[in-house]
Amino acid sequence: MNGDIVLVALIVIGLIGRSPIITTAACVLLIVKLVHLERYLPSIERRGLEFGLLFLTLAVLVPFASGKVQAKDFLAMFTSWTGWVALFGGAIATYLNGKGLEMLKVDPQLIVGLVIGSIVGIVLLRGVPVGPLMAAGITAFILKILQLFTEK
């Protein structure tokens, strides 16, 4: 029952914050619980991130499939400073994702803070949730910086 109350609270927060993603996700999970399909929750938890990243990647790759991005765009990427910064940003993001995954394996209870922080970011900062790994990666980076300052 406690989970139901949390889901209803998330629906309300999503509605107040005009966040259809949070509202829809909480509604779907509440429906799964109310129609007694809880046995699928572990599968949703295990595969949901993969499916979410799949659809996110599909959306990002549509310009390649539709022909909006062409070979000349690749050349422009390697010959402009913004292209090199984008390459660097992508490499750093994937590195941070890896560090976030390592941190979550060691300290899995941090997911509670990451989820609540993501909800705050969605509702108050109008952010877009792209997954807990980036949030975990940034958290791991911040914790490492804090450790450097507090150990001296």
UniProtKB/TrEMBL annotation:
Membrane topology of this protein: Multi-pass membrane protein
Pfam families in alphabetical order: DUF441
Main location: membrane
CC annotations in GO: plasma membrane
Subcellular location field: Cell membrane
InterPro entries cross-referenced by the UniProt entry: UPF0756_TM
Keywords: Cell membrane, Membrane, Transmembrane, Transmembrane helix
Transmembrane segments: 6-36, 48-66, 78-98, 110-127
UniProt similarity note: Belongs to the UPF0756 family.
Protein name: UPF0756 membrane protein H4Q31_03625
Species of the source: Cohnella lubricantis
